[in-house]
Recover the amino acids of this structure.
């Protein structure tokens, strides 16, 4: 009987030691698997789009509105231009009508120029509305070449 009690106690101790060890090994294997998956997804990141305008990404009607209506209207509304290290920022009146025009223009612009980072921002305390066009190396030069009237002060 004493031998059975001792064996039972030993078995309990072994089980109590094996459970945490199995948990640690399982977590380690899971973390290794996740790390390998993350490394694989980084390697599969698509190449950046070329620095070239895809005008055909817009329908003929939208392309006409974008270049012949929205662009010239926004150039007239533009109040100032700030040069940034990686692009430009354009100041506009802080009214809703201008914001709607900019949002429409930005939505279309991202279709034909997906390499440009576009952001719209209202400054606090009734400050101005800003359109920011930035991006990787070469985007600033692309904006300079493509957006001449936008840059004139």
């Amino acid at each position: 009987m004493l031998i059975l009690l001792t064996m039972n106690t030993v078995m309990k101790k072994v089980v109590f030691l094996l459970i945490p060890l199995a948990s640690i090994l399982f977590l380690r294997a899971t973390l290794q698997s996740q790390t390998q998956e993350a490394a694989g997804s980084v390697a599969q990141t698509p190449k950046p789009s070329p620095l070239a305008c895809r005008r055909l990404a817009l329908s003929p009607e939208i392309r006409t509105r974008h270049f012949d209506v929205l662009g010239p209207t926004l150039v007239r509304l533009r109040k100032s231009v700030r040069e940034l290290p990686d692009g430009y920022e354009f100041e506009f009146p802080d009214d809703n009508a201008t914001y709607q025009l900019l949002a429409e223009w930005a939505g279309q612009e991202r279709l034909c120029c997906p390499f440009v980072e576009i952001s719209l921002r209202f400054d606090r305390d009734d400050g101005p509305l800003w359109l920011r066009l930035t991006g990787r190396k070469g985007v600033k030069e692309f904006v300079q070449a493509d957006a001449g009237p936008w840059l004139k002060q």
In short: Helices lie at 2-43, 60-77, 96-112, 139-146, 148-151.
